[in-house]
Amino acid sequence: MAEIKPFRAWRYNRHLLKNISALTSPLFDVASEKQKADLYDSSCNSIHLSIPRGPRPAENAAATLKQWRDSGCLRQDPVAGIYVYYQYFKLSGDPRPYCRRGFICKIRLYDWDQRVILRHENTMPASVDEQVELLAATGLNASPTHGLYTDESFELEKYMDESMRRPLCEAEDYQGIRDVLAVIREPKIIRRFVELMAKKQVILADGHHRYAGSLAYMQQRMAANAAHTGTEPYNYHMMWLTNTQANDLKILPTHRLIYNLKSFDETAILKKLEHYFTLTAVPDPSFINEIIAGKKNTFGLIFSQCAYQARLKSGMHRRLNWNFPDEVKKLDLTVMHYFIIQQALGIRGRDQRSSKCIVYERSFPICLAKMAAGQAQMALITNEVTIEEVKNVCLSGAVLPQKSTHFWPKVICGLVFAAI
């Protein structure tokens, strides 16, 4: 199963750690243009390594990394360790404080078909190529991907909690989350981490393109290295691992907005939907996410002048004739993409991934604002996917529909970097 090992992280020097909150940055797939513009103004912000800009971004990142190393802005820890990373946060409407506990390590890269690292979504080749180019230029994992393992005994948490008594640094990130980093260097304890993970599969929660980029880069290096042994640093990848058994894993829903669909006819669409769904008018769409909460195969439909709760009719699910495993067919999002987007809107399944008419939006208030401003033709509001559904799909060997999961809080960049 999964082979992990400790590593010597590159980290900001002690002087810069005093203001570490100003040096962290969001991941490339969640950073807004405004966030990026503000962070680029800081010459030492981690965004210059994780999301470099300019006509030759990878070369720029490599030059920045060399400058930071030469100047002492970044220093490599003298002893290898496993880095413990905790996120302290609260959920909207829930007064209880949460803490997501996990550890950052190097993990051996595995092809998808080896079934050690399990993916739940497909990747886009262009984005993977960008990651390969960045790795080739910098030789650096700029941010950890997020992996999930399952351990009902919670054996490792006691060691992680102990390390948190002596944190290395603490930051408040762009999400309002308190991020705390510590390290474990005792060989005996590290051995327990290695031994436990050697029995585990890992579900990749976040970072599919970065992981796929590392995998492709490793394959390039293997092909070019006649003396390849499998122990070279490029065979490993930096990952943050958290336990699925902990009650700290929040998956937010990702809604769909429909734009510029030709021959969009609200009356005709509703007539088609009535064949599959029981439609109930919702006078105030601002409550539609609460109205559908927890209801299986139930969605919110927002048009320009009206809104509906749409619940799939009894017996209708058996008409879903896409050639997917049962674990995928059971998902609300599969029902949405088949019965609403394909059958009612006319966008065929094979065309949906590349369709410019479908925009994915995580924020429910933004969906409302877009509809109120007349900027979209229709909003499809959905419930979140559960971690058990993610597990079932991954173990079946299939992947979820596009943009199914938004694990929250997100890992941040800037606490540790890993040379490959």
Care to describe what's here?
The protein contains 15 helices and 21 strands. With 420 residues, it is of the alpha+beta class. The chain has 2 domains: 259 residues, no CATH class; 130 residues, Conserved hypothetical protein from pyrococcus furiosus pfu- 392566-001, domain 2 (2-Layer Sandwich). Strands 1, 4, 5, 6, 8, 9, 10, 11 and 12 form a 9-stranded mixed sheet that branches. Strands 15-17-16-19-14-18 form a 6-stranded antiparallel sheet, with helices on both faces. It has a two-stranded antiparallel sheet with strand order 2-3. A hairpin with a 2-residue loop joins strand 4 and strand 5. Helix 4 runs parallel beside helix 5, helix 5 packs across helix 8 and helix 9 packs across helix 12. It is globular. The two termini are 21 Å apart.
Which key phrases capture this entry?
single chain, 420 residues, alpha+beta, Conserved hypothetical protein from pyrococcus furiosus pfu- 392566-001, domain 2, 15 helices, 32% helix
Q: How helix-rich are the residues, as a percent range?
A: 25-40%
Number of helices: 15
- Give the low-confidence spans: none
What structural class results from the helix and strand content?
Answer: alpha+beta
Main sheet characteristics: 9 strands, mixed
Count of the separate structural domains: 2
Shape: globular
Kindly state the number of beta strands. Answer: 21
- What portion of residues belong to β-strands? 15-25%
Mean pLDDT over the residues:
94
Distance between the termini: 21 Å
**Gyration radius, to the nearest Å?**
23 Å
